[in-house]
Amino acid sequence: MASKASIAGHPVHPMIIPFPLALWTTSVVTDLLFYGTRHPTLPTISKFLLAAGCIGAVAAAIPGIIDWLAIKHRETKKVADWHARLNIIALLIFATSLCLRMKGCGAAWVNYGLKIPFLISLVGVVLIAISGWLGGKLAFEHGVGVKPQHDSPEDEVAKVRFP
Predict the structure, then answer these.
(1) Beta bridge pairs of residue 6
(2) pLDDT single digits (tens) 78-91
(3) Would you state the pLDDT for residue 161?
(4) How many Å is the Cα radius of gyration of the chain?
């Protein structure tokens, strides 16, 4: 289906989504660098990366929801539902990791070398990898965002009216 949230025919969701994915993944990299170097600024960098990723994910979700609401084909909708669920869970996971790193919410974790927030973020990266694969399936196999939507066979059956 052609995207309802597009600029000059280009779908907005796939334009925005690389930013939170890259920010969250880079936060895990900076955590790993922290474990190797114990450089004191790396946890702060990770916090900013996580926060920016969460903001970017919310921004990317808006056109994603618009496209999701327009999906009519039942099989495509199932894939889109899982893609959306995993993205929401990932956002909550990364927000939790961020919260645990903040003063007042998880300052005690700093004493443990940020292991718990790091492990939480690692789970989030696995989820966004799976969700990204589903997003690719939506675009490349189902044509979401790029080609006109056709009625599914189930929709055709539903249109048949009996006297």
Answers:
(1) 11
(2) 999 999 999 999 99
(3) 46
(4) 19
Residues 42 and 3: their CA atoms lie apart, in Å, by: 39
**Alpha helix locations (H) across 38-161?**
42-70, 74-101, 108-111, 115-140, 153-159
pTM of the model: 0.84
Phi-psi region of 145 (alpha: psi -120 to 50; beta: other; left: phi over 0): left
DSSP state of 142: T
Q: Would you list the domain boundaries of the chain?
A: 6-150
Max mean pLDDT among 38-42, 48-52, 113-117 falls in 48-52
What is the C-alpha separation between 89 and 129, in angstroms, rounded? 13
What SS3 class is residue 17?
Answer: coil
Residue 13: enclosing H or E segment and its boundaries? helix 13-16
Neighbours of 77 (CB within 10 A): 15
d(CA 140, CA 162): 37
The amino acid at residue 55 is I
| The token pair that represents 61 in the structure block | 């979700």
Strand pairing partners for 7?
10
Give the whole-angstrom CA distance, residue 4 versus residue 89.
Answer: 24
